[in-house]
Design goal:
This protein has 162 residues and is mostly helical. Helix content is 60%, strand content 7%. The chain contains 7 helices and 2 strands; from the N terminus they run E-H-E-H-H-H-H-H-H. Strands 1-2 form a two-stranded parallel sheet. The relative contact order is 0.14.
């Protein structure tokens, strides 16, 4: 693996992750061990889900400055948060606003991997970033109307037909 800058890797504590941390000690990859990995992973999933909106619009982070996009992002992330909590994630009510604030504070030309994949004509990882919210929402009886629309549009954007 080639790492061009620094990176942070978060792993679940107590699963042998200390061996990974020791292996990467002294490299540009910092390993953090999380006792509540489920919550850490779900928070990252919420961020990735919101980034799917960038792939749908073909726009970079500057789009989150728009009031309409900001409100759509809030609605979507609140929906995702309900599913995350049903799955056992311990996330605060303000997580959606924090994620949106992060996008809004980013450079306007900031991209994400899903947008980069779309621009390059590659298949999108929509199912593990967005589709999972709809599927798990159904499992828990949680309506996910925004997620259902975003997922369908990302699937069509990724898979065609063209």
């Amino acid at each position: 693996m080639r790492l061009r800058g620094s990176a942070r890797l978060t792993l679940p504590d107590g699963t042998g992750a200390d061996r990974v941390a020791e292996t990467l000690r002294g490299t540009r990859c910092t390993v953090e061990l999380a006792s509540d990995f489920r919550s850490v992973a779900w928070r990252k999933l919420l961020q990735n889900a919101a980034a799917g909106l960038m792939a749908l619009t073909g726009r970079r982070a500057g789009m989150f400055a728009r009031a309409d996009i900001a409100e759509l992002t809030r609605v979507y992330l609140r929906e995702c948060l309900r599913v995350a909590r049903a799955e056992g994630a311990q996330l605060e009510e303000d997580v959606p606003e924090e994620i949106l604030a992060g996008f809004r504070a980013s450079p306007a030309d900031l991209s994400t991997s899903i947008l980069t994949d779309r621009e390059a004509g590659r298949a999108l990882e929509w199912d593990i970033r967005n589709g999972v919210v709809s599927r798990l929402g159904r499992v828990h009886g949680i309506p996910t109307p925004t997620s259902d629309v975003v997922t369908a549009l990302l699937a069509a954007t990724s898979d065609g037909p063209r």
